[in-house]
Design goal:
The chain is mainly beta and 134 residues long. Helices cover 10% and strands 34% of the residues. It is built from one helix and nine strands. The two termini are 21 Å apart.
Length: 134
């Protein structure tokens, strides 16, 4: 069977459909996320003030021969009520603000582990959340 490839236009449609059609939420996790991880099994941050945050994305662009989509604006989490008990090492995108039902659409490892102390915040910078199709 022949293997095909998406054109740049096809990749743009796919990225727009995945990341720009529905409201998306960014969640934080304290353990590894992989293709088998679900919202029911992800080990999500559990601070009292933590909640998944809405995230929006810019139009896809051609970056280094890949169609790339990046978040539009920083995503800031509220100050931690108490120091994080475990390091936050992963983030994920989903279409649901709460609950363990739904899908993890995409995920990524944070460049450095974060463990906010009481009163500290955590921010994913503008264009700090990037996905691509080559």
């Amino acid at each position: 069977m022949a293997t095909g490839e998406l054109s740049n236009a096809g990749a743009n449609i796919a990225l727009n459909t995945l990341f720009r059609t529905d409201t998306m939420y960014l969640g934080l996790a304290t353990s590894t996320i992989d293709d088998e991880t679900t919202l029911a099994t992800v080990v999500e941050e559990d601070d009292t003030n933590y909640e998944r945050k809405a995230i929006t994305f810019n139009e896809p662009a051609d970056v280094g021969d890949k169609q790339t989509i990046k978040n539009n604006g920083a995503v800031a989490y509220d100050a931690w009520a108490s120091g994080a008990s475990d390091a936050i090492t992963w983030a994920f995108i989903t279409t649901v603000a709460t609950l363990a039902e739904g899908n993890i659409i995409a995920y990524f490892a944070l460049p450095t582990a974060k463990q906010p102390a009481t009163g500290e915040t955590l921010t994913i910078p503008d264009e700090g959340c990037t996905f691509d199709i080559d």
